[in-house]
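Quick review question:
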């Protein structure tokens, strides 16, 4: 349903470093960069899954971070993980990149029997999740 989502960050360099490290285990990286001159207000970095999808989505940025006004409240973004091991790796990478624990990797059966997820707060306090819906 959602084509892409973007959010303002307090420090684009710090946020870029965090997301590169945290999303790397999920197969996501930078697929587009846009300068402040191009946007007219602030630089933006687009993350996606380069070369992993066989359709028009390949290399398309689906998650954007940008310089600008910070949101009045933290947001929650959940990223698809290809496996439970990738969820675990996301969690470790997110903490190593300076994120804060907001929910260790594990099953969340109150959502559904195979909902395996982990949660990390990014440097701006946003709740970032990696989730795998596949059975063990």
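Suggested answer, residue by residue:
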């Amino acid at each position: 349903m959602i084509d892409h989502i973007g959010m303002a960050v307090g420090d684009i360099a710090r946020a870029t470093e965090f997301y590169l490290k945290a999303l790397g285990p999920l197969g996501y990286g930078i697929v587009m960069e846009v300068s402040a001159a191009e946007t007219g207000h602030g630089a933006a970095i687009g993350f996606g899954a380069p070369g992993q999808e066989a359709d028009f989505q390949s290399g398309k940025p689906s998650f954007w971070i940008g310089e600008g006004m910070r949101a009045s409240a933290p947001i929650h973004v959940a990223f698809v993980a290809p496996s439970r091991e990738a969820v675990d790796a996301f969690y470790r990478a997110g903490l190593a990149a300076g994120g804060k624990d907001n929910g260790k990797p594990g099953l969340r059966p109150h959502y559904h029997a195979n909902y395996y997820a982990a949660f990390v707060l990014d440097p701006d306090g946003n709740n970032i999740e990696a989730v795998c819906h596949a059975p063990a």
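Why it works: Residues 79 and 130 are 5 Å apart (CA to CA). The radius of gyration is 15 Å.
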